Amino acid sequence: MHYTAVATTLLVALFAQGSIAQDPAMATSTLTTVCQQAAKIPVCDLYSTSCKANSTAAACNPVSLALSACADPVAATNSACTMFKSMCTGACANQGAVKDLLPARNASQQVFSICTEMPTMTDCQGDARCPAPDATGVSDCKSWTVYSALCREMPDMTQCASWKSFCSSNGQVAPFCGGAAPTTNSSTGGHNHGTSGNTQGTTTGAKSSATTVLTGAVGMAASGLLAMMLML
Ligand SMILES: *[C@@H]1O[C@H](CO)[C@@H](O)[C@H](O)[C@H]1NC(C)=O
Ligand SMILES: *[C@@H]1O[C@H](CO)[C@@H](O)[C@H](O)[C@H]1NC(C)=O
Ligand SMILES: *[C@@H]1O[C@H](CO)[C@@H](O)[C@H](O)[C@H]1NC(C)=O
pTM, whole model, 2 decimals? Predict the structure, then answer.
């Protein structure tokens, strides 16, 4: 959207490039937005299953999670990613994506390959199973969760080489590499993005909120501003 582009340009000009994107809250805003729109990418499984409950896990650096989300070809053109990548340069970009996490198409393909070879495995059946990849190459399922479950059961299948790399690079993060998922503790809430409503306003509403964002830009906290802009 035009106003988003204008706002992005202003933001980049307002803040030292790179520094704003290192704010974990901005990375988390980006990730949250991308995972609403492209929920099937592997990093969204990792984020929702492990990182929300245990943000100290090695694989859960917010900037690395956001970089992973935006590196997945399935999400690369997402407007939140366009904005994030324009700001996450230099030291921010150097933090790197989560190591050895597969993109959505690759994870879907690995599950499909394993389940073609070993169709009787429990995780190739049932409601959570992955159907064959669709025309876009992505299976309609939590492919990273299913892939990891299959590889936990049959770690020496050739298709599990990427899983082994992921696990050794990321401190054997639970539950993907072993162990039980960390439990969410309601008393340790994450960053609050304010209203999570569906602000699909009319054009007038969108312009009005863009103007509000621009007017208030200088004085607002960076993460709150970004969260608002991402909803435009
Ligand atoms: C959270 O992650 C840290 C670092 O990897 C690990 O030592 C700890 O056991 C994890 N906690 C839970 C509840 O999984
Ligand atoms: C993902 O799949 C594509 C196409 O098969 C391949 O070129 C690429 O190397 C794969 N990426 C990873 C990380 O395995
Ligand atoms: C939740 O947090 C409280 C207070 O830190 C702690 O006593 C409790 O054990 C935690 N519960 C879980 C399931 O982690």
Answer: 0.74
Are 71 and 96 a contacting pair, CB within 8 Å?
no
Ligand 2 — pocket residues by CB below 6 A? 102-103, 106
Using the atom order of ligand 1, give the atom closest to the CA of residue 181: 14
Report how far ligand 3's centroid is from the alpha carbon of 21 (Å).
Answer: 31
Whole-angstrom distance, CA of residue 133 vs CA of residue 130: 8
* Of 205 and 146, more confident: 146
DSSP per-residue letters across 26-89: HHHHHHHHHHHHSTTSHHHHHIIIIITT-TTSGGG-HHHHHHHHHHSTTTTT-HHHHHHHHH--
Nearest atom (ligand 3) to Cα of 188: 2
Nearest Cα residue to atom 11 of ligand 1 = 54
Residues 6+ apart with CB under 8 A from 93: 18, 67
Closest residue to atom 12 of ligand 3, CA basis: 185
Q: What is the pLDDT of residues 97-114, one digit of tens each?
A: 999 999 999 999 999 999
In terms of Cβ atoms closer than 10 Å to its own Cβ (0-12, 13-18, 19+), residue 62 is buried
